[in-house]
Amino acid sequence: MKLLVAEDEPKTGIYLQQGLAEASFNVDLVMTGTDALQHALTEPYDLLILDVMMPGLNGWEVLRMVRAAGKDVPVLFLTARDGVEDRVKGLELGADDYLVKPFAFSELLARVRTLLRRGGSSPTQASMKVSDLEVDLLKRRAIRAGKRIDLTAKEFSLLELLMRRRGEVLPKSLIASQVWDMNFDSDTNVIEVAIRRLRAKIDDEFDLKLIQTIRGMGYMLDAPEPD
Fold this sequence. Notes:
Blueprint: E1 2-6, H1 10-22, E2 26-30, H2 33-42, E3 47-51, H3 59-68, E4 75-79, H4 84-92, E5 97-100, H5 105-118, E6 127-130, E7 133-136, E8 141-144, E9 147-149, H6 153-164, H7 172-179, H8 190-202, E10 211-214, E11 218-221
Parallel strand pairs: 1-2, 1-3, 3-4, 4-5
Antiparallel strand pairs: 6-7, 7-8, 8-9, 10-11
Helix pairs in contact: 2-3, 6-8
C-alpha cells in the first residue's frame, strides 16, 4: 500500500513516515501543499494524509483540486483545528476522516487501516448508535434516550473507541494506547477509574447497561441480547 503524508512540521512528518513504514506501508513525505497536489495527481496512492495548514496550498485546497481531477483516493485530514465548522468543511469537500492533533499514533494507524479497507467509495461515518445511545462524531456529543450526556474529552474518546469496536472485548493495554497514548501499567487504575466515570454517565440512570466488564479480559460496549 502506498501512502502520501503531507505535513509541514518536519519532526511530525518524519515520525509519521517512520511509524507507517514500520507498519509495512510505502510512504512518501512532502511538506507543502503544492508538492502534495503534484504528487497526488501524478502518483497512484492508496491514501492521502493531509495536514490542513500547509504553505503553498492548504489541505482543503489540495483536496478540492484532487476531487476536481476525478480522483476518489481516501483522504485523512490531520489538524490542530477542532472546530465543528472546520471538520464539516473538510468532510463536505470529500475528506473521509478527520484526526485532531495531538493524537496517538495507534489511533492514526487504526484509522488508516480502516480507510484502506473501506476504500474511497463509502461515506464518512458521522454518527454511531447502540440501542438508545447515540454519538455525534462531528459535534463530539453523546445523547442517551434523548438526554444530552456531558463528557470530558477523554471520556468521549473512550466512548468513541468502545462504540467503534462494539461487541469486541478491549483489553486495558489497547484502551491505554489508543485513548491515553501510553503503555499500560498494571500498577495504575486509570482505566478502571475512567470506565467507572463513563458508566456513571452512560449507564447508571438507565435499566439497560451497555458497558460490560469481562473479568480478566477487558471491557466491551454492546446492547445485551433480550432473555
